Amino acid sequence: MAKEVIKSLYNLPEKAAQLKPGQKQYIQKHQNQYQNHGPNRGQNQNQSYRQAKLQQFRGRCLHCGSNKHTSNCPKTNLHCNRCNKPGHTGFVCLSNPHPRSQHQSRQQSNKTSPACSPTRGQSPERQRRASALTVVKNSTSVNDMLPKLQLCFSQNKSSFHYMATCDTGATITVIASDIIDRYQLQILRTSERLLMADGNPMPVTGTILMMVTLPGKQDKPINVKALVSPALHEDVLLSLKDQISLGLLPDNYPNHVKVCSSSILKTPCNNAEGAVNTDLESLKAEFSDVLSDDLSSLSNKSLGQEMTIHLRNAVPIKPRQATITWQIPIHLQVSADKVIQDLVDTGIIVPVHEPTEWTSQGHFVVKSDSSARLVTDYTQLNKFVKWPVHPFPSPDDIVQSIRPDSKVFATFDCKFGYHQVKMDHNSSLFTTFPAPQGRFWYTRAPMGLNASGDEFCRRSDDVIRGISDCRKLVDDILLQAPDMKTLLQRIRELFE
């Protein structure tokens, strides 16, 4: 009761004469406090903020804040990023960034509290989502950036054409209130809620039922139930469901993906397909040793000169010894024994029977095909190895290097890439590792050593240097050409 009296006195001071002495004393005690938290608190804050801003920019341009001019500002056509009004920038905006009163703050807090959240007390069927998000750069219009589609809308005897925005993230179609007013369409009351992409509520004034068709396909109309929102301006957000009903998207979108068959990707589809296959088979037969997947093909071959591991001289080196071997899981024992035997047979690793200063931990991991892979942890050794840095391009650089006239491509994967680089004897001593099958060291560059990748990239880059339109990313090679004849010539040049 006393609060209502204070509120009445705050708005109509002439009622103070009608108050009793006890009420006057209570009002005088709490009037200042109520004025600071009264219903006009936001207005008072806005006025104070505006006056402070005007005082701050006195003698300056109120469009951009510059002290070099007060008129003919070149930024009068910009929109403020705070109040979204034209004619000034956010630096000189007179709108208070925190204008809410305590009462408004509590209302906003209640809206976002768990008790009043859309997921409580509101069935999921009553919640809808509109998620058209756009990043606007410079003066680009939003309408020019979003995908638009002309549709025919009709309700009773009213019909009109309008450009709608295709929003695959929206669960229901949303139409702007100004469109409803312009064409005098009938709307119904609704209790459904509408959420934006960031989860904040979007105002809804009602729902509308319409018939929607594509231009030229009036014989295939669909019934559309849309929500009406004043938050939109001259726009219609077409939901994913309605896009599928109109046939704009497949029924199982986004799982429906059209891909070319593997036969199309492997060979060109033209009249000379038979001749191309013959040429490819001829190349494969001529360079069978280059295209071999067998480890034994690496015997007595090396990519460039022997690799040498260089240790750092500026720090004291403390060799590490791994004396314990990791036991192989039972389901990998057969595969692990085969891996060790194959590496020994091809000379990539050799048994060690003499003491070595360095011994790194070796173990086996499971590959994607359930077989075993030998892994060696050279973390401690890498701390003292000089890193022979060699630059290599990124995947984006490879994509950007594709020529606009290239029509045919060929890709190659360097098999056993690091193992193609031989190491000298002194460097092999650093790579010693124990395994349940014994102690071994690598005679070729091992995986896990920080110098292996750069040494391989440097040597392989020297090999492909000079080949036209040839790009490489570590151990993957891409050849491109405008026609198949040119591509076959470049493949031959690569193999040679």
Distance between the termini: 99 Å
Percent of residues in helices:
25-40%
Class based on secondary structure composition and strand pairing = alpha+beta
Radius of gyration: 37 Å
Based on DSSP secondary structure assignment, what is the total number of beta strands?
17
Biggest sheet: strand arrangement: 2-3-9-4-8-7
Shape assignment: elongated
Work out the helix count: 15
**How much strand?**
15-25%
Overall pLDDT score:
75
Which terms summarize this structure?
alpha+beta; 6-stranded mixed β-barrel; 15 helices; 29% helix
Question: What does this molecule look like?
Answer:
It is a single chain. The strands form 5 sheets. This protein has a 6-stranded mixed beta barrel with strand order 2-3-9-4-8-7. Strands 1-5-6 form a 3-stranded mixed β-sheet, with no helix packed on it. It has 496 residues and is of the alpha+beta class. The protein has 15 helices and 17 strands. The relative contact order is 0.07. Helix 9 packs parallel to helix 15. The termini are far apart. Strand 11 and strand 12 form a beta hairpin. Helix content is 29%, strand content 18%.
